[in-house]
Specification:
It contains 25 helices and 31 strands. By secondary structure, it is of the alpha/beta class. Strands 14, 18, 19, 20, 21, 23, 24, 25, 26 and 27 form a ten-stranded mixed sheet that branches. Strand 20, helix 16 and strand 21 form a beta-alpha-beta unit. Helix 4 crosses helix 5 and helix 14 packs parallel to helix 15.
Length: about 800
Amino acid sequence: MKRYINREISWLSFNERVLQEADDKNTPLLERLRFIGIFSNNLDEFFRVRVATVRRMVDLGKDEENLLGDYTPKQLHKEISSIVKKQQKQAQKIYQDVVVEMATEDIFMLNENNLSPTQEEYVRKYFHDKILPNLVPIMLTKSLKFPYLRDRSVYLAVKLSKFANPEKMAYALLRIPSKTLSRFMVLPKEENKQYVLLIDDVIRFCLKDIFHIFTYDKFEAYTIKVTRDAELDIDDDISKSFMEKMELGLKKRKTGKPVRLLYDSDIPEDLFSFILKKMKLDEENTNAGGRYHNHRDFMEFPEIGKPEHYYRALEPIRHKDLRPYESILKKIRGKDIMLHYPYQNFGHFIDLLREAAIDPKVKEIGITIYRVADDSKVVNALLNAVRNGKTVTVVIELQARFDEEANMYWSQKLQDEGATVINGIPGLKVHSKLAWIKRQEKGEFVNYAYIGTGNFHEGTARIYADEGLLTSDTRLTSEVANIFDFFKHNFRQYSYEHLVVSPFHMRKFFTSMIDKEIKLAKHGKRGFMILKMNSLIDTNMMHKLMEAAEAGVKIKLITRGIMGIKIDKPELAQNLQAISIVDKFLEHSRVFLFGNGGDEKIYISSADWMGRNLNRRIEVACPIYDPELKEELKEMLRLQLKDNTKARMLDPELQNLYNRENVSSKYRSQEDFYNFIKSKHTKSMKIYHNPRCSKSRAGLKYLEEKGISFEVKEYLKDGITAQELADLIAKTGRPVFDFVRTHEQLYKDNYKGKEFSDEEWLKILAENPRLLHRPIVENGDKAVWAQPAEELDSLLG
């Protein structure tokens, strides 16, 4: 067991990498606040699930699958508490550093003590208009039962007293209404300065107004927050439907046992003791924090900064083969297509569903749903398919943690419309990411499929890095169809020659692939693997990888989160290296590459290498057969292994040191892969545009309707140099004077009838860009003056 790193400790090390992003001065200023929010949100879920599990295990003994490492449950709980306290202290320091830096950028975080008279008036009005109607003060007494504290909600524990008589006091409780209001109040700008106040402090400022009926003159408020056990206890009553059991389990979760009380370390001892006693908690279950809790709300900090305070927007790129107003199914018939999110547009998949929903030849659509967006375009497309007479089968996993209620809602809505809804498989979670379309073509049925690594969720597809394969390859699509038949009829078992399906044979398959590499290495040949996943903690798979490394197989691991192998022996470190990439997007894809004696095999998968994925879930790994798509994935892996900006080395001491190899060049894999995808799927097109010109607007619209990606250069606003003009006009093959707007009054007043050289005209145009004909559109080494817009066709080829 000492060869492995404990799962929980490894996860906390991952969350420390998130905190590193907040601490990194190279991270844009307000993105650093966002990473503090992500760190806090992650920690909440960790306590709700993992720490709650550890606490349950204290009385049950050691669970070999969950408790890797040399810990008893009690020791592990103590170690978790120690690490979390250290990380939270670091998070508070980072937050204060960011606040100081924000002030240098004229963004000020205020509290109730440093408001100007004008701001005080504004804050008080906002409080009475917006906040007070949402407040429900509760007076606390020894005789009354302590109120129920909602999971992860922030409360102000209030102490009321008198300056002249401190012994006379009262306690009260206020829940901060951050679900109905923004946690942040933006005050009016003053002299180009931005001011922000947390509504916690708005309430503090107005405490006297809330408790005006009392004679107290001293008011203190301290933040507290409870995190509760979020494990679902499913009733085993056979007389109830699974839906009924889920509803009951969700109700119980809301009143789950507290696993952590987070409190302001400045809270008076008497108030703190009162709360602990009334809640029947001991100090072992508490964590001292700062003045503010629920830093996760900083994920939604108001967008009041300058462009440089945020990441440069990377607009999703349209796939070069999926043009607007063309059939996606027809394209898939011709070739496999791979989509890389968020670098490419998830809208392609939604367009596919919309097309299938209205195509008269499409007879059936199937999909697996684990998580979807609140206002899901995916589900709406499925509902439209039902209304158009298609048979729609939706496998909705009701036990998708924290999405149970949403999935129950969609399940009922789809059933009401007439879809066939399957609420998971008894004893197994359905975590695969599959869509299937059955279409009648030339008197027979043809299958199409989408096989992915991430959820059908248009929201997360903008921030999660995932892969999705669109295919009509019968080797794959017939097996996807078989999986959906298994969902409908669990008694029907299929063998799969191409797809790798858990829990049936995924573990065995990947073990055999590793064994092949071991055999190659032992015979003096090159054995190697590149394995990318979110978590690696399954004991058997880790043991097999260590066996392979010790046999001489070269293994590169790209593991974002939990990684349990302790690379603490020279024979391991020589052949096994592991990195984790934490950057602006969440690395979520699973990609497995095996050298296979020169005949490389590469798979995308919905499954990590954890016991739950391999033993208790329906997961799918899919081979990539198309050589071009294999190269795309290999390029992504190569770029990630070269990353020396956001990659950390995973070492046995959990130091999270940055990978600083090849420091002569800078590699940042997410941006580098975006640029790779952009260069492959877009033309290097730029339009020199004046938005006030109708001809220029017509040229812009023409490009948009063609589905071409392009850059817009608003030269009147941004300026243009004589050299830039010289290069641009040279690409048109036309004389410089052709681009002078001779009907402009400026030309008539200053230049008409005068002789100028090309160089002089270029200088005049750069100084007076109003005189330049537009739009001019550039594509590589060619350019055209696009009047009329159809002139652009010569560039589109």
